[in-house]
């Protein structure tokens, strides 16, 4: 019986070779897109799965009115909560900054690597595989250091396992010695924790006043929580404790207490923090984008299934007599359903194999696009997709199988089934759904393109072309902080041929503000802004970036008061204070980063400029000369304007100076300011690229399906075409008669898709502080584009139908 079913299947595949190829191609592309996004999702979910007891370890995050969601917590928040609530067994601190690297030295060998500043019990929470030494007391005191296997190999060579007790030097201003206590191996699986060495956080080496403050958010904390704990209830208790202590601190500092915006604590499971962290997280992934893309890939898969269903039902007239005869000779409905399901499964299985081949070919480019190294070596992926294949085959095959098996022998043997109203209604409904999905993708793709274009064309408020930024690798905390180092390097680099000007700032354009604090109106201390950016800049900063003043003047070294209390405000700060730019001039404010109520006088108001990205609102900021108060220790970079005549030559000369005189032994790297700022667009540019790609895939699948479907349906009407031509109908009339039904379905589909597209895009645009108004033209263009494509695809086959041999189709009449 199976052998007979296979023979029938291959006969029908050969007979309908075009629709078979289109089915396989459409399903392969749909499955390929789904698999690529699915493996990306699985890769993001796999982070920190190496940690034992990860389901009971939680990342501690905080939210308050001034800073929003924060990755960091205060020390009292972590320690007092552990003592107060029995649900919390212990806490650990793990300040791992993968981008901040330090030089570690042993003799003539050195390594430039990332590090973690942690609490004593770090290895209890993060049990890396031990290579040598003892984890128990590895980082419980000053002068102790644990290093990774890679770091140990670089410093000690093949004898790295015997490095316990060896003395290392840390290349910082203190030039301290550290003794190796342990060597650990970093996980081979996905993890955000890859420190080259681990040491006790310097704040924990001695008691300090800052760590007694509830609002000193300095530590990335983790709780180990007892199994079975009600996490939501614990979050509520932690939030209440934090808020009560923050109110005490705010009263002492004279800040306004807003009971409507209470501070909150959130707990995110270690194994889920990559995607589910509330704040920016530890190397947080973009869960929302992945879920959107995954949903869209399911729609594409659905579209491929619709093609299969539609083409199978369109072929019904060709199989009707076969079904009728088989029923007459005793075949049951169940056998017919199983036969048709087998045929569908065979197509899906071939498409499944082709899809994996396509994934293997596309994976290198996909990895480069995502900045990942995903591999097809996860057995669960094949299990999940195998189940998907079976379920998809069952769903997409069951509808045409039931449809075909329900044919009545008396009707099918008369040859009238092709004109059945039920058959026409089913095909039209499925075709409408297919075009709704296509229209939805077109609308969304056009709106996303418009929003990204709007962001990229927005006035940034500064000119950053031909400006490179070089970050200091080695800090100089003891030699009057970094300000003297900055001045020395500025003086030396300015002598290099091709360097036009140099400036610096404590914040980084493209990376956002480094520090923020509250600021009060000195004349009325009830008026304040809780989160104002601390903007230490060089004196030429505004001229360097060609920023425009809307009122007042720049800082002037000739006026001593400018260097002591003068400040420049941006437009956002002035608006939040309730002033216009002219009113702000001469006003005095009390910044929270100054002590003894020192007043700052506003000298000028500069036009708003973007620091973080144009998708986020401009932060209020006060800017002042860098060589004032504690800000001088944050001058950690040079921003260099390069002449356009010899950019590459100038960069080479700067590199030679930097590697030989400025910071020898350290890796040299730089970034163009405009390119660095462009990285703030990358997330949305990638969304635009992915959505455009998916849109093309959707249109290709839909149009291929439409072409195959129209071919089958028009072939069923060739006798009608022959009769019309015999009666004198011209080609235009015949083509219009054959295509108008498809065009009507297209119009209906677009109108149905409009509310879905509007809702989806309105939700997507909510993430942007600066967004376009919802445009009308994408909806109109979607209609015209689909009408044109539908007409072109269907009319091509319709026109060919007008060239038929009339004798062939009329000789039996």
TrEMBL record:
GO terms for cellular component: plasma membrane. The keyword DNA repair does not apply. Its main location: membrane. Residues 295-408, 695-805 form the ABC3 transporter permease C-terminal domain. It is found in: Cell membrane. Pfam families: FtsX, MacB_PCD. GO terms for molecular function: transmembrane transporter activity. Keywords: Cell membrane, Membrane, Transmembrane, Transmembrane helix. It is a multi-pass membrane protein. The chain crosses the membrane at residues 21-41, 290-311, 336-359, 379-404, 425-448, 690-714, 742-761, 776-799. Residues 20-239, 435-627 form the MacB-like periplasmic core domain. InterPro entries: ABC3_permease_C, MacB_PCD, Macrolide_Exporter_MacB. This is Putative ABC transport system permease protein. The lineage of its organism: Bacteria, Pseudomonadati, Bacteroidota, Flavobacteriia, Flavobacteriales.
């Amino acid at each position: 019986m199976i052998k007979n079913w296979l023979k029938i299947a291959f006969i029908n595949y050969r007979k309908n070779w075009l629709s078979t190829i289109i089915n396989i191609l459409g399903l392969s592309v749909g499955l390929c897109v789904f698999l690529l996004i699915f493996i990306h999702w699985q890769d993001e979910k796999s982070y920190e799965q190496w940690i034992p007891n990860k389901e009971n370890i939680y990342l501690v995050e905080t939210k308050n009115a001034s800073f929003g969601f924060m990755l960091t917590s205060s020390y009292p928040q972590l320690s007092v909560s552990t003592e107060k609530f029995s649900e919390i067994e212990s806490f650990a601190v793990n300040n791992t900054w993968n981008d901040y690297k330090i030089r570690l030295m042993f003799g003539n060998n050195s390594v430039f690597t990332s590090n973690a500043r942690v609490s004593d019990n770090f290895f209890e929470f993060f049990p890396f595989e031990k290579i040598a030494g003892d984890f128990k007391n590895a980082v419980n005191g000053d002068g102790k250091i644990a290093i990774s296997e890679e770091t140990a190999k670089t410093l000690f060579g093949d004898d790295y396992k015997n490095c316990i007790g060896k003395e290392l030097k840390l290349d910082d201003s203190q030039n301290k010695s550290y003794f190796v206590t342990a060597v650990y191996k970093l996980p081979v699986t996905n993890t955000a924790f890859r420190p080259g060495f681990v040491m006790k956080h310097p704040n924990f080496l001695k008691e300090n006043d800052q760590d007694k403050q509830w609002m000193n958010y300095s530590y990335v904390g983790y709780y180990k929580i007892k199994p079975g704990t009600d996490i939501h209830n614990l979050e509520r208790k932690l939030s209440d404790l934090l808020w009560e202590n923050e109110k005490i601190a705010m009263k002492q500092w004279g800040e306004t207490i807003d009971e409507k915006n209470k501070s909150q604590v959130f707990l995110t499971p270690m194994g889920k923090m990559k995607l589910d962290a509330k704040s920016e997280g530890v190397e947080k992934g973009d869960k929302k984008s992945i879920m959107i893309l995954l949903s869209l890939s399911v729609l594409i898969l659905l579209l491929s299934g619709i093609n299969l269903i539609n083409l199978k039902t369109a072929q019904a007239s060709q199989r009707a007599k076969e079904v009728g005869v088989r029923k007459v000779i005793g075949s049951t409905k169940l056998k017919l359903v199983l036969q048709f399901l087998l045929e569908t499964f065979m197509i899906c299985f071939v498409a499944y194999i082709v899809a994996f081949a396509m994934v293997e070919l596309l994976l290198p480019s996909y990895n480069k696009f995502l900045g990942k190294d995903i591999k097809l070596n996860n057995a669960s992926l094949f299990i999940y997709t195998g189940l998907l294949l079976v379920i998809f085959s069952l769903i997409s095959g069951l509808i045409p199988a039931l449809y075909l098996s329900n044919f009545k022998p008396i009707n099918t043997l008369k040859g009238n089934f092709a004109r059945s109203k039920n058959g026409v209604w089913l095909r039209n409904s499925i075709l409408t759904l297919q075009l709704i999905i296509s229209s939805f993708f077109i609308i969304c793709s056009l709106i996303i393109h418009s929003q990204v274009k709007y962001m990229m064309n927005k006035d940034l408020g500064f000119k950053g072309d031909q400006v490179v930024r070089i970050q200091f690798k080695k800090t100089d905390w003891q030699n009057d902080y970094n300000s003297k180092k900055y001045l020395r390097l500025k003086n030396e680099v300015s002598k290099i041929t091709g360097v036009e000007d140099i400036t610096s700032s404590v914040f980084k354009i493209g990376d956002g503000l480094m520090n923020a604090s509250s600021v009060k109106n000195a004349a009325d201390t009830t008026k304040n802004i809780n989160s104002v950016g601390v903007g230490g800049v060089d004196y030429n900063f505004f001229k360097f970036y060609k920023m425009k003043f809307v009122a007042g003047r720049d800082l002037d070294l000739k006026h001593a008061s400018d260097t002591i209390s003068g400040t420049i405000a941006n437009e956002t700060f002035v608006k939040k204070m309730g002033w216009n730019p002219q009113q702000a001039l001469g006003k005095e404010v009390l910044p929270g980063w100054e002590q003894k109520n020192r007043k700052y006088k506003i000298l000028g108001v500069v036009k708003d400029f973007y620091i973080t990205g144009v998708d986020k609102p401009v932060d209020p900021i006060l800017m002042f000369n860098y060589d004032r108060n504690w800000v001088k220790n944050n001058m950690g970079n040079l921003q260099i304007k390069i002449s356009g005549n010899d950019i590459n030559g100038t960069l080479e000369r700067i590199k030679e100076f930097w590697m030989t005189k400025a910071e020898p032994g350290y890796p040299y790297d730089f970034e163009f300011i405009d390119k660095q700022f462009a990285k703030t667009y990358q997330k949305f540019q990638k969304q635009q690229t992915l959505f455009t790609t998916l849109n093309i895939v959707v249109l290709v699948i839909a149009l291929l399906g439409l072409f195959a479907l129209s071919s089958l349906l028009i072939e069923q009407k060739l006798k009608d075409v022959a009769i019309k031509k015999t009666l004198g109908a011209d080609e235009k009339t015949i083509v219009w008669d054959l295509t108008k039904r498809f065009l009507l379905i297209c119009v209906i589909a677009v109108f149905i898709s409009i509310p879905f597209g509007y809702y989806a895009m309105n939700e997507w645009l909510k993430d942007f502080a600066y967004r376009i108004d919802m445009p009308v033209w994408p909806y109109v263009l979607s209609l015209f584009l689909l009408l044109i494509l539908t007409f072109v695809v269907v009319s091509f086959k319709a026109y060919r139908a007008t060239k038929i041999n009339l004798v062939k189709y009329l000789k039996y009449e």
